[in-house]
Structures are given as C-alpha cells and as structure tokens.
Amino acid sequence: MTDTIRFPAEWEPQDAILLAWPHAGTDWADRLGEVEETYIALVAAITRFQRVLLCVADDDVEAYARARLASARIDMSRVRFLPVPYNDTWLRDTGPVTLRTGEGFRLLDFRFTGWGGKFEATEDDALVRRLATMGVFTDSTVQTIDFALEGGAIETDGQGTLLTTWKCLRERHPTLTQDELDARLMASLAQDRVLWLRHGYLEGDDTDAHVDTLARFAAPDAIVYQACDDAGDATHYDELRAMGEEIAALRTPDGGSYRMFALPWPRPIHDGDRRLAASYANFLILNDAVLMPGYGDDADERAREVVAAAFPGREIVQIDCRPLIWQNGSLHCLTMQLPAGVLG
C-alpha cells in the first residue's frame, strides 16, 4: 500500500453518511409508508453522531422529506439536502468509493450496471459526477473507472487488504481470471492484496453475493460474518458453514489468524412465496457507533451482543430493517460513508 494513496476503513473518522430519500418513482412505491418510517429511524440515529447528506429527486420530494424528518424532532442542522436524480436508493453501490491521497481525496466512480443489468441504472451511474459538479466535495477529484464494481462488493481493513466474493466479481466480469481481477482491484483501490470468499449466499439476494451481507472487517485482524446454525436450512447451512471455514483459513499480513465473530441466524422471513435476504452482517459503522439491522427475531439481541463484542467502545443501535429487505437489502446497502475532510 502506498504512503500517499489509501482506501480508509469504514471505522475511521467520517464527515457524513450519504443517503437518498425513497419516493413514488422508486421501487419502494408500493410500500412507501413502511420504508419511510425506517428512513426516519435511520436518519435520526445517524444524526446523533454525524451529518447526513440526503439526496432528493425534486423540490416536492425535498419538502416532504424535510417535513417528515422535522416532525420526528431530528436535528435538521445535521441534514443537508442534495437535489439530484436517481433510479434507486442503494447508495452503497452508486455513491463514491473514496480514497485518501497526498493532495486530498480521490472519488472513484466505477461503472454501475444495475447489478449486472438487472435494473435500469442510467441516473445512478451518473450520481457521483453530478454530486461532484454540485460542489459537494472539497479537495477532491473524480476518477471515472470503466470497470463494473459496487461498494457493497468490497471490504477493506484500511491497511491494504481487500475482502470480496468470487461469485459477484465473476458475474460482473466473466472473461477475467482471478489474477486479472486481483490486478484491477489492487490498482484502482490502492490495495496490497485481495482475499476471496468462494462460498456464502443468501436466498433473495439479487446482488450476486455482495460481501457486505456476508462478512465484514471489524478491525485489521477481525472479521464479523453471518453464520447459519439451522441444519434444516438446505439453502444456507452448508454454504455459510463453508464460508466460515474459508474465513478461518484466511491469514492476516503477518501470518496470523483473524479473530472471528459469528452472527446468529434469524428465522426465515417471507413475502408471500419469496424468501427475503435477512442478514445481520449488513451493519453500518459510524463515528462512535454501529447501526445494525433488527428483524423482530429472537436472534436480534444475540446479534447485537456479537457486534458489541466486535466493536468495543461503540454504541450499538438496532434498527428495524424488515421493510428494507422487501427490496433485498438492508441499512448498509442504503448508505455510503464519507471520510473526514471530504466535505471540508
């Protein structure tokens, strides 16, 4: 890892969290009321610790979002509204991946394809450039990279190690070898090495196994991961057990084993005949806190205890994410952190 360019870990100091308000023109339309309540809870939790940059599609959406948030007694001085078009609200995958450089910040604008062409993504693919043109960021340059990559597909320890899944990157780039993918990821993200997980999958996930639903760095030597202890769950038991074994076999740069924190398995949640992708691994690290999903499940409290053990000294705030997984994601998928200094 170079001394002048670095991909900071999520637990490092942040300026703000980037979000986009759901509205009738997004896929949330059929259940807008439910998801708005989750958004209000999410913004309320974030603004206790830092600022929120909230994308809004037009003046009417801004006025409505402002009124809903203010009525919840949220500190509106910590919310900045950004008028910009977007197809969807999953900003983990469409927001900027930010590197620190000797001169400031480099905002990486990877190609966003709607998770491999599954959904329309023209507006989302232009989001980073539009925000930069609006003057949102300071001491920064935008680097457009013609390589399909979503923020939810990658985890960094902040010290040059990247964690990702073979299934997702292989789906996006079927003609590239692992060595070629290693080279592209290390060069664009200023990483020294890439750790690959070849197992791990959640039914209902349409991202092709994003790592942020499966395994997350909690420190340079610690990984929190979603486990499954239900041997009767034919879809997940073997896959997640094999993923746990893969993580146990990974080594830190100095040759040591990673400290492992296994998250409990929630009961299946269905929407009609469709099983939803409920994962506790989709947590968001803030300044002095971790926000994590809750699913109204007996395992919620045990999951909170695991996250608390992995992040000592941080407040753990659980948010009901059942409305979010209806659209196959949770709170980390909705958000993108902006490192300290990028907003001036």
Automatic annotation (TrEMBL):
Pfam families: PAD_porph. Keywords: Hydrolase. One of its GO terms (molecular function) is protein-arginine deiminase activity. GO terms for biological process: putrescine biosynthetic process. It comes from the Bacteria. InterPro entries: Peptidyl-Arg-deiminase_porph. PANTHER family: AGMATINE DEIMINASE-RELATED (PTHR31377). This is Agmatine deiminase family protein. It comes from Luteimonas yindakuii. The lineage of its organism: Bacteria, Pseudomonadati, Pseudomonadota, Gammaproteobacteria, Lysobacterales.
